[in-house]
Amino acid sequence: MTRKILVVEDEAPIREMLCFVLEQKGFATQEAEDYDQALALIKEPYPELILLDWMLPGGSGIQLIKQLKQDELTRQIPVIMLTARAEEDDKIKGLDVGADDYITKPFSPKELTSRLKAVLRRVAPTAVEDVIEVQGLKLDPASHRVTANHLQLEMGPTEFKLLHFFMTHPERVYSREQLLNNVWGTNVYVEDRTVDVHIRRLRKAVSESGHDKLIQTVRGAGYRFSTRL
Amino acid sequence: MTRKILVVEDEAPIREMLCFVLEQKGFATQEAEDYDQALALIKEPYPELILLDWMLPGGSGIQLIKQLKQDELTRQIPVIMLTARAEEDDKIKGLDVGADDYITKPFSPKELTSRLKAVLRRVAPTAVEDVIEVQGLKLDPASHRVTANHLQLEMGPTEFKLLHFFMTHPERVYSREQLLNNVWGTNVYVEDRTVDVHIRRLRKAVSESGHDKLIQTVRGAGYRFSTRL
DNA sequence: TTATTGCTGTCAATGTTCTGACACCCTGGC
DNA sequence: GCCAGGGTGTCAGAACATTGACAGCAATAA
């Protein structure tokens, strides 16, 4: 679970400030100060999001984003543009070529992280470190804890990720295969039935407080996290 | 010993950024966005240092600093000026009226804290950070001592830094890599597993009083300092 | 300088927990 | 009853964490 953000910005003070804030908020960062460095860093493992300065020496940011959108592998990486001013032109151009959001300098840590979280939530909802609570069942990604009515619950890492996924995607059925892709990760060779086992373990972990009822079997389809019986 | 910094800056994003960085570095902050608010906050307990924007609406920063230097009680509070650019004029004027240092925007967190520390060191060498106490476990950065229920504990420098980091960042999981970055410093080539060893040494050092329970393993994620089991 | 002491990072051995697979059981629908 | 699909118990191997030992350093004292 890398949660890595690539920061592309030529001014070192601003770049360092960005990375400092992001790291304090629990993200890993990579730094690039120009087009070439950025390109070199955009490869496996791909960053989860790119913060991109509009004005870059040796190739503007818009050029980089265009290139990313042409490659199948990098197309879906969300990009937030950094602009020096709130210029309508830049804004429109940036969104035209595929930027997911933009931030104008100077920015507060709050604006930075909230926009970042908003974009990540849209693209990969499990990547956001907000506390989620459903009917007294509380999951805190930051401290890596799950509590049911303030009573701490114990579970393995996989069950934690599974629950996290469910709580961020409630009221929707997921097939075993979809769960494997989202919780275990893609290209992982695991039996479908394995999901059953972890569902069981998760149910057991949250059963004391009765929250196992939230994890529902949908016969012939998969599983669902729902507050409705 | 309050270690309180007053930030006087009219642009909210920049002000918030300053406060965020300072708070992460262990300072307490107060915010003012203009001359009047700043004046209202400069009283008992006096801030230990003032970060002052050069251009303030309703009275320039230079005016505020002049006023401070006239009052016996506030004269010795060090002031760092914030200037939009490195203009020689501003620099000279600022230092003339008694500013202790200046920082030009944009600035990196490193520059900010190192200049701030330098000024504090010059003005108040004895200035220390606040004592942190959690459940009878007391860490005093000033005397570089750790006590558990008034009983002194012995540990190495790395363990001390590790504990300090944990106590200032409780209730959050940190991966081995994050701990290395925050405690050992960035770009240090050390094995991940080394963290385990120092965790062990730290636990051992605080174990007699049972405080080792505060340092918790989160399997598959890292370590956490928490008062909850 | 030399000796001593304590700190640090690494490693291998050990202990613990998690994971995925399998076999078997249970249930509901027909 | 029979079947399909889901639930449960168990287990070996993998992954992960802890521990003790050790060698290299750096600081300190003699």
In angstroms, what is the radius of gyration of chain A?
Answer: 20 Å
Q: What composes the largest sheet of chain A?
A: 5 strands, parallel
- Major interchain interface with per-chain residue totals: A-B, 26 and 31 residues
Please state the structural category of chain A: alpha/beta
Question: Which residues of chain A sit in consecutive blocks of at least 5 with pLDDT less than 50?
Answer: none
Specify the oligomeric state: homodimer
β-strand percent of chain A reads 15-25%
Average pLDDT confidence of chain A is 87
Query: What general form of chain A does the structure show?
Result: elongated
- Please state how the strands of the largest beta sheet of chain A are arranged side by side: 2-1-3-4-5
Number of extended strands of chain A? 12
- In sequence order, what are the helices and strands of chain A, one letter per element? EHEHEHEHEHEEEEHEHHEE
Helix content range of chain A: 25-40%
- Counted by DSSP, the helix tally of chain A is 8
Q: Could you name the key traits of this structure?
A:
homodimer, 229 residues, alpha/beta, 5-stranded parallel β-sheet, 4-stranded antiparallel β-sheet, 12 strands, 39% helix, 21% strand, elongated, DNA-binding
